[in-house]
Amino acid sequence: MNSSFSKDSNGYLETIRKGLLYVQDLQGGASYGNGTRSEQISRLKRELGSADAIVIGAGAGLSTAAGLTYSGERFDKYFGDFAARFGITDIYSGGFYPFPDDETRWAWWARHIYFNRYIDAPKPVYHKLLTLVQDREYFVITTNVDHQFQRAGFDKQRLFYTQGDYGLFQSVNPMLQKTYDNEEWVMQAMEAQSFVRDTDGIFQIPHAGVSMRLPASLIPKCPDDGSDVTMNLRSDDSFVEDEGWHKASAAFAGFLRSHEMQHTLYLEIGVGANTPVIIKYPFWALTQENPKAVYACLNYNDAFCPKQIEKQSVCIDGDAGTLFDLLIRSDR
């Protein structure tokens, strides 16, 4: 068959279209897979070892399993002052809070970025996943923006961050379709709030506490034209898909093209109901059109597949870190 992905394809848009067309004709309801949990884990282990290619699709559930939680103890520890003053209840909603001034807003974002982008996840879940695929032909597409795949050692040429990166700014000027690395600014902004590094070089809150404002001189500006900047996170049509983004999208399409109709494992991990069009629906469609393909859904309380691809699917309910441990142990 002729490939549906050309040399310079936009893999992001083309797979979304493919997935949407597929779900329009879905009939027969959902399946939770065939066999016992143990049997499905054993089958997934076999597929990981025998597939010609593995396409990993990761959502927020993977980072949650890795301990990058947005509420609870972790939020209270690093954002308790913002919670007390503004009534913010979690890191996610804090990103939309109407702070009274730019000095306070950017103090929030410095912490938001640092604790979700520039430190390793509390649990080695990403490292465990790499252990399972590092010797295989793999590619990763993810809606996560926390850079944990690269921090864990995944090949950056095999990663496609579809929704942006906490480590990048973009200008509010729509004529500047570029992104800007923010690491140096983040480190300065953390120091300006009086965070101090521990023996591992990680910023912590000292006994004297920290500030909730930055000096006006530290409010970030675009280095090209001095305009205001915002986060490079997809929330509307102002999101900048820069050169790196398009290169990764084309690489994703190229990987799918090069393994079309081969024994491909579409390994979906922690993808919820917020963005099924980016990973879940395309994975279903790609599995349906290739009788050699296998779709695996690993999710906490939400592992399922369409009835149409039930025989080609593995659905395992559970915490990703625990499942990776089982898969690693079964190889010993």
What does this structure look like?
By secondary structure, this protein is of the alpha/beta class. The protein has helices spanning 11-24, 37-50, 60-65, 73-86, 91-94, 102-117, 125-133, 148-152, 183-192, 243-258, 280-288, 320-329; strands at residues 30-31, 53-58, 138-142, 159-161, 164-171, 179-181, 196-197, 203-204, 229-233, 264-269, 294-299, 305-306, 313-317. The chain has twelve helices and 13 strands. Helix 7 packs parallel to helix 12 (320-329). The two termini are 40 Å apart.
**Overall pLDDT score:** 95
Question: How many separate domains make up the residues?
Answer: 2
Q: What is the CA-CA span between the terminal residues? A: 40 Å
| CATH class division of the largest domain | Alpha Beta
Low-pLDDT sequence parts: none
CATH superfamily label of the largest domain: TPP-binding domain
**How is the main sheet built?**
6 strands, parallel
Which percent bin holds the helix content?
A: 25-40%
Largest beta sheet: what is the strand line-up? Answer: 4-3-2-10-11-13
Count of DSSP-assigned helices: 12
CATH topology name of the largest domain, in short, is Rossmann fold
Radius of gyration: 21 Å
Number of strands: 13
Shape, per Cα inertia axes = globular
